[in-house]
Design goal:
single chain; alpha/beta; D-Maltodextrin-Binding Protein, domain 2; 2 domains; six-stranded mixed sheet; 11 helices; 19% strand
Length: 328
């Protein structure tokens, strides 16, 4: 009997080892859905574009990529969740510049290094705009008055420490002009401009498209490295003598330690989706533009920009980090 037990035990061990080996050979993804955490509410620009991407990635990976909204604290809730998940490719985050701004604002105990960059997907060009009946026709018109009357003019943004706030700081610091930055909830920024409560605003194109088309709002500059194809008639700040460019980007990241083959499979699925003409057409309608970067280049961009955002947030007293970050 004892001999039989030993034999059964050995056979069971061999069976389990064989099953494990087979499991290791099964290409990713082979179990359950892939959950994409979106840091902002359903219906937001971030959410709509994430769902476009998830649809394309599902086709490429032959597995469901499911969007789950985890908004709050400038993205901190979503980042905390994904960073705490198993690094196996089944929990990914639709990340953005907010990984740095949220950390420096003191809302995260870890920085971008808690994640592996997979791919940048798209960019949005921040826009400085005024009312359609305002006297300023160009960026230099506005800057001339702002320099003449420092602290007199107000510029609305989507909240203290938001990307549009940081862009305003970068623009007017580079231009040597002093304005008053006024934070609002994102949905209130354009109505506040139209109502005459602020002199100008800094926003992303998606929230301005209708108003630009009707002439209610006039764009003075985009803060991008080159002209935005969705706003081809609007010159960049650099074209107008102010070297300020801080595009908003969105991409995919995974928890640190995710196996390279898994991250590579995700990167390839993103690339194929972004290369699809239907994705580009749908993105253009939303005022965003596809701008794929592979993992290595995307990681370099995040690291470089992280240092820039740290200094910009220090300029406005919003950098609360004084110690090295912890990592999950």
């Amino acid at each position: 009997m004892a001999g039989q037990i030993v034999a059964w035990t050995a056979a069971l061990a061999a069976l389990l080892a064989s099953a494990a080996a087979v499991g290791e050979d099964v290409p990713y993804p082979h179990k359950g859905p892939i959950e994409m955490t979106v840091l902002f509410p359903a219906g937001s620009s971030a959410d709509v574009t994430a769902r476009l991407l998830a649809e394309g990635m599902s086709k490429q990976l032959k597995a469901n990529v499911v969007v789950v909204n985890r908004p709050g604290a400038g993205g901190a809730i979503g980042y905390r969740y994904v960073a705490s998940q198993k690094a196996d490719g089944y929990s990914i985050v639709w990340n953005s510049n907010s990984i740095s701004t949220t950390y420096y604002a003191g809302q995260l105990p870890f920085d971008y290094r808690a994640f592996e960059a997979v791919a940048r997907v798209l960019v949005e060009s921040p826009v400085l705009a005024v009312r359609g009946d305002a006297p300023w026709k160009t960026l230099q018109d506005f800057l001339r008055d702002a320099r003449t009357r420092p602290g007199r003019f107000t510029v609305g943004n989507s909240g203290a420490g938001s990307h549009t706030h940081i862009c305003s700081v970068a623009l007017f610091h580079a231009a040597g002009a002093q304005v008053i930055d006024v934070p609002f909830a994102a949905a209130q920024v354009v109505p506040s401009l139209l109502g005459g409560h602020v002199d100008a605003l800094l926003q992303l194109p998606a929230s301005l498209a209708t108003y630009l088309g009707s002439g209610q709002v006039r764009a003075l500059a985009v803060l991008a490295r080159e002209r935005d194809p969705t706003l081809p008639g609007i010159p960049t700040a650099a074209e107008q003598g102010v070297p300020a460019a801080l595009e908003a980007w969105r991409g995919i990241a995974v928890p640190k330690g995710t196996p390279l083959p898994v991250a590579a499979a995700l990167e390839q699925a993103v690339r194929a989706t972004v290369d699809d003409p239907s994705f580009a057409a749908a993105s253009e309608k939303l005022g965003v533009r596809p701008a794929f970067l592979g993992a290595a280049e995307f990681a370099q961009l995040i690291a470089k920009e992280d240092g820039e955002l740290s200094e910009l947030m220090r300029l406005i007293g919003l950098n609360k980090q004084t110690a090295a970050p912890a990592h999950p």
